[in-house]
Automatic annotation (TrEMBL):
MF-aspect GO terms: S-adenosylmethionine-dependent methyltransferase activity
InterPro entries recorded: Methyltransf_11, SAM-dependent_MTases_sf
Residues passing through the membrane, by range: none
Domain Methyltransferase type: 64-139
Name of protein: Methyltransferase type 11 domain-containing protein
Length: 142
């Protein structure tokens, strides 16, 4: 057994408590994610990237790692409808449910395969073990 297993369980438990108490921000939206993108120097909006991908594919799978309340995925679903399949990954069930949810510790949960886009803002530093989560995310990409 991984020697950090029990310590990891305690960390996850503390994050669940913070989310439940409303201490940690869980609200998000397409507008907010585009703002993060712009702050990182990207010129295109997220929806532009999705539209480009939809020119090559009929159907696009989008995963939000640390989806919070699910607002970002809900905004995308409103814009693209049945052209996209939304997947939310978080410790707790999102208020605005995506098409598919992966609930629990992202390091321990199984991710769907052949995902076209993975977005994650304000989350990777909280998950810990960046090498492991990045590798796991890469394996989920189409």
């Amino acid at each position: 057994m991984n020697p950090f297993f029990f310590m990891r369980k305690e960390v996850v438990k503390k994050y669940v408590e913070k989310y439940t108490l409303g201490v940690t921000e869980v609200e998000n939206s397409l507008e907010q994610y585009n703002s993060f993108f712009q702050n990182m120097g990207f010129k295109e909006k997220i929806e532009d990237l999705i539209e480009k991908r939809l020119k090559d594919k009929v159907f696009v799978k989008i995963m939000d790692l640390g989806c919070g309340n699910g607002g970002f995925l809900a905004d995308l679903k409103k814009k693209f409808g049945e052209q996209i399949h939304t997947i939310g990954v978080d410790l707790l069930a999102p208020e605005k449910p995506p098409d598919e949810s992966v609930l629990g510790d992202a390091l321990e949960s199984e991710f769907p395969k052949e995902v076209d886009f993975v977005f994650s803002f304000r989350t990777l530093h909280e998950i810990g073990e960046p090498e492991k989560i990045v590798e796991k995310t890469q394996n989920a990409l189409a």
